[in-house]
Amino acid sequence: MPEVLTGGAARPEEGHGAHRLRAALPRGEEYVEAWFVEGTGEDAFVPAVRLNSQHGLPLSQADRTAAAERFLSTRSQGSDRRIAGSTGVSPATVAALRGRSSVSEAQSNARAGCDGRVRPLNAAEGRRRAVRFLAG
């Protein structure tokens, strides 16, 4: 599995899997497969979790749940399905975690779906506007 580092190729910094990069240097390895993500460690977290769920050593249920909780604390605008798809837990688990969340920031009235489109949490207002439009 490639390492996921932040800062770009010219200035690699700490990231997810950076410990494997540090371990490769004393062994004399000249090349290490890595993905570089411009930004912070939080920016590297998303691809790191996705990559980890795809290789032969899957995360434990506790690790996947912890990743979903971290997503909710930093990227709460994502839909339950989107977060579930990135972390390997079910959408129902994400919904339960969201309901128990102690994050004090205001919840958004919309969420970004797996397709990237932003949808309202409650479609009732849109339906009311459509009725008014069609009525007259």
Please characterize this protein's 3D structure.
- The chain is mainly alpha-helical and 136 residues long.
- The protein has one domain (3-135).
- It is 48% helix and 10% strand.
- It is built from six helices and four strands, in the order E-H-E-H-H-H-H-E-E-H.
- The protein has helices spanning 18-24, 41-54, 61-74, 80-87, 91-100, 124-135, and strands spanning 3-6, 34-37, 110-112, 118-120.
- It has a two-stranded parallel sheet.
- A hairpin with a 5-residue loop joins strand 3 (110-112) and strand 4.
- Helix 3 (61-74) packs across helix 4 (80-87), helix 3 (61-74) packs across helix 5 (91-100) and helix 4 (80-87) crosses helix 5 (91-100).
- The termini are far apart.
How are the SSEs ordered, and which strands pair?
Elements: E1 3-6, H1 18-24, E2 34-37, H2 41-54, H3 61-74, H4 80-87, H5 91-100, E3 110-112, E4 118-120, H6 124-135
Parallel strand pairs: 1-2
Antiparallel strand pairs: 3-4
Helix pairs in contact: 3-4, 3-5, 4-5
What brief labels describe this structure?
mainly alpha, two-stranded parallel sheet, 4 strands, 136 residues
Q: What general form does the structure show?
A: elongated
Biggest beta sheet attributes: 2 strands, parallel
Strand content: 5-15%
Q: Considering DSSP H and I runs of 4 or more, what fraction of the residues is helical?
A: 40-55%
- The strand count comes to 4
User: Mean of the pLDDT scores?
Assistant: 76
Identify low-pLDDT runs. none
Tell me the number of structural domains: 1
Q: Going across the major beta sheet, what is the strand order?
A: 1-2
Look at the helices and sheets and give the structural class.
Answer: mainly alpha
Terminal CA distance: 59 Å
Order of helices and strands: EHEHHHHEEH
From the alpha carbons, calculate the radius of gyration and give it in angstroms.
Answer: 19 Å
Give the number of helices: 6
